[in-house]
FHA domain-containing protein FhaB
Amino acid sequence: MPIGLLDLFKYVLIALIWLFFLRVIRAVWVQIRTNDLQRKEKSQSEFEVLSQGGGETNQAKKTVTSSSSGRSGSKRRSQAKSGFQVKFKRDGVGEDLIFDINGLTTIGRSSGCTISLGDDEFGSSVHARMWVDNDVLYVEDLGSTNGTFVNSGRINTPRPLSKGDRISIGHSSMEVI
């Protein structure tokens, strides 16, 4: 084989190795940026859990509020301005939970999510999100493997919801009330 051709193969191999390393560095960079964006979204919403005592239903009520002042440490009680509530139920486990949706609400297995799926193996760590825009409640799947279903149909884009719609994620289900 001519020496010139061997030199050409050598330079092509070196270029391919550099392209591989650049691709790995880019993948790490994208992952770091995605985690930073998720942390920013998490800090933009705050929540507090209120237990409702007595009664026959024994339901827990969770109020989700958007932090408009930018102070991350302030907790405040507010009325649901949007008028949207979601009834959350794990498949045969525990009691129903009622959530007022006022700001960005994340749903997933992660403890940082507003609505935690617990140990549901079919849910992602940050599986989906819900928000209100112009008095319309939306849900969006965040690229999960097993998908988010609204009224038994898988969604791929943000979808507006109305009262009575059922959202299914793994073994957990929610209903807009």
In short: Confidence is low (pLDDT under 50) at residues 43-81. The longest strand covers residues 93-100. Residues 8 and 90 are 61 Å apart (CA to CA).
